[in-house]
Amino acid sequence: MSIKPFSERKLPGVICMFDVDGTLTPARRSATPEILAALKKLREYTAVAIVGGSDFNKIKEQLQEPVVDTYDYVFSENGLTAYRMGKQLDKASFIKHVGEEEYKKLVNWILRYLSEVDIPVKRGTFVEFRNGMINIHNIRPKMVEALRKEFDYMGLTFSIGGEISFDVFPRGWDKTYALGRIANDGFKEIHFFGDKTYPGGNDYEIFSDERTIGHSVTSPADTLQLLEELFFSKA
Fold first, then answer.
1. Is 174 tagged catalytic?
2. Within 10 A of 163 (CB to CB), how many other CB atoms are there?
3. Which end of the chain is more exposed for a tag (fewer CB within 10 A), N or C?
């Protein structure tokens, strides 16, 4: 399929950026054919970007397509791993940023904390390392606050990113990091669609950023309805 340059689309200068879990897919599940068709259609109108907190392979699995060829931008791990028009951009690294010794202190604290709490099933992955962040599974109500207090000196953000997990990354490495990736591409209007747009949610910073027009959704069906209202019904 031939892809039109941004300047030849129906709404040149406009880009739509989408969270994945809860916005394009049910949490940790695959996108429906209806969502995939809507995103394909939207690409005739605007530039389209995927902005997920998960790693690239998880996003690819959920969207069920060769994502780097299907969308104009794919930003995994909040944009720390990024593709533009099928080409990979430079990566950012969590460990390089904080240092190996500080990283070990953080992970050791988390594992020690989890070892001392009682949970129904103590199996599986508790700390998942990603290129630009770590993801902590099995959230404890007081755990995030305890981490903030213990590691405030490291300049980290602790952000709820899923139903049972939260992300840890350097301040400024939230989803607004992806906005820097498109800063020189001439977009005059940036729409962002996400479900965790409340303070503490991993969509909050980009949703409330002055550079974006934020749309809070409750489900993929809600996203479809908004796309119809904002773009398709006006064609």
1. no
2. 10
3. N
Q: In this structure, which amino acid lies at residue 224? A: L
In the chain, what's the furthest Cα-to-Cα distance? 58
DSSP letter at 4 equals P
User: What is residue 210's DSSP assignment?
Assistant: T
Q: What is the pLDDT of residues 50-93, one digit of tens each?
A: 999 888 999 999 998 789 999 999 999 899 999 999 999 998 88
Residue 175 near residue 201, CB atoms below 8 Å: no
Pick the catalytic residue from 19, 72, 195, 203: 19
CA 149 from centroid of its chain's CA atoms: 25
Picking from 107, 61, 55, the residue whose alpha carbon sits closest to that of residue 76 is 55
Contact assessment for residue 192 and residue 214, using Cβ atoms and an 8 Å cutoff = yes
pLDDT in tens, 99-156: 999 999 999 998 888 887 766 666 656 788 777 777 777 665 578 888 889 999 999 8
Cα–Cα distance for residue pair 49/40, rounded to 1 Å: 12
Radius of gyration over every alpha carbon of the chain, rounded to an integer in angstroms: 18
- Tell me, what's the pLDDT at 140? 59
- DSSP character for 22? T
At 178, which helix (H) or strand (E)? helix 177-181
Q: Which residues pair with 216 in a beta bridge?
A: 194
- Residue pair 45/14 in contact by the 8 Å Cβ criterion: yes
- 223 contacts 203 by C-beta, under 8 angstroms: no
As a dihedral over the C-alpha atoms of residue 85, residue 87, residue 90, residue 92, rounded to 10 degrees, the angle is 70
